[in-house]
């Protein structure tokens, strides 16, 4: 006999099965029903049918029309996040799950090399947006943020300043590329306060592609220095100085030790 733990969730006194919850999770994580169906290995009409069955079961709508198609509404997102959190609890290993980006990767790795028991930590490197989504779902214990504004958008969390960085402003005209890492909002808020006109052209995943383009952009000084890039900033970087924050749910000896080690270091070596 094979026994395995499974996740069930009760919504409006109705129990949703793991399979039904996986449909909602797939839509949440992929951002569309078509992509969710592909991920689950089913056709889009079949996924539509599953979703309608779930909505009928709980007695409420779980999706809404978005600019790129049908996406989860706030109720659907709440169910998806709760399911993700429950799954995380089932597979908890006792390790501290830490999230960061390529901006803070070396800072965190350096700190982890000095903690007692580095094997007690799991490091996930992604974007602020993805890390904070997992953090809100309780799948991460601590996130080191490029953009401190994410921390100010949340209540009931703990946060601590662990480093400082500056943005470089490479100005080439009205068209701006938005690099996926770094405190981009701080750069554009500065332009807004100065009344500078600009046009957001596209999001860039590659810094080298952004540099080769003819677009203006912002990039963290620490990353440019690590890559040996000689970029001239059109704006005094001190005007774009910001704190690197670590957000976490609760204190623990392992969390506190990592925070101390990060605070001893600097991003701009």
Account of the protein in words:
The protein has 269 residues and is an alpha/beta fold. The chain has two domains: 9-90, Winged helix-like DNA-binding domain superfamily/Winged helix DNA-binding domain (Arc Repressor Mutant, subunit A), CATH 1.10.10; 93-269, 3-Layer(aba) Sandwich (D-Maltodextrin-Binding Protein, domain 2). It is 40% helix and 24% strand. It is built from eleven helices and twelve strands. A hairpin with a 2-residue loop joins β1 and β2. The longest helix is centred in the first third of the chain and has 17 residues, at 74-90. The model is unreliable at 1-5 (pLDDT under 50).
Question: Strands across the major sheet, in which order?
Answer: 6-5-7-12-8-11
What is the name of the CATH architecture of the largest domain? 3-Layer(aba) Sandwich
* pLDDT averaged residue by residue: 89
Q: Strand tally, please?
A: 12
Strand residue content = 15-25%
What Rg is obtained from the alpha carbons, in whole angstroms?
21 Å
What count of domains describes the coordinates? Answer: 2
The CATH topology of the largest domain is D-Maltodextrin-Binding Protein, domain 2
Major sheet summary line? 6 strands, mixed
* Low-pLDDT residue spans: 1-5
H/E element sequence? EEHHHEEHEHEHEHEEHEHEHEH
The CA-CA distance between the termini, in Å, is: 58 Å
Structural class by SSE content: alpha/beta
How many DSSP H or I helices? Answer: 11
Share of helical residues: 25-40%
């Amino acid at each position: 006999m094979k026994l395995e733990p499974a996740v069930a969730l009760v919504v409006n006194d109705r129990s949703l099965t793991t399979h039904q919850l996986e449909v909602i999770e797939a839509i949440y994580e992929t951002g569309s029903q078509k992509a969710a169906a592909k991920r689950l290995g089913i056709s889009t009409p079949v996924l539509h049918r599953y979703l309608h069955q779930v909505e009928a079961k709980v007695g409420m709508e779980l999706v809404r029309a978005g600019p790129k198609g049908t996406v989860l509404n706030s109720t659907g997102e709440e169910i998806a996040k709760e399911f993700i959190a429950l799954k995380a609890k089932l597979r908890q290993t006792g390790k501290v799950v830490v999230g960061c980006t390529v901006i803070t990767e070396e800072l965190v790795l350096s700190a982890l090399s000095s903690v007692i028991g580095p094997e007690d930590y799991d490091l996930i490197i992604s974007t602020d947006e993805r890390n904070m989504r997992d953090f809100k779902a309780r799948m991460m214990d601590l996130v080191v943020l490029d953009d401190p504004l994410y921390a100010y958008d949340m209540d009931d969390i703990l946060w601590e300043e662990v480093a400082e960085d500056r943005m470089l402003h490479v100005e080439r005209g009205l068209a701006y590329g938005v690099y996926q890492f770094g405190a981009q909002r701080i750069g554009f808020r500065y332009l807004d306060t100065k009344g500078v006109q600009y046009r957001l052209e596209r999001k860039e995943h590659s810094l080298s592609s952004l540099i080769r383009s003819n677009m203006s952009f912002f990039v963290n000084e620490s990353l440019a220095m690590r890559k040996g890039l000689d970029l001239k900033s059109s704006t005094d970087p001190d005007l774009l100085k910001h704190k690197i924050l670590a957000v976490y749910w609760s204190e623990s000896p392992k969390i506190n030790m990592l925070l101390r080690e990060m605070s001893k270091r600097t991003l701009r070596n």
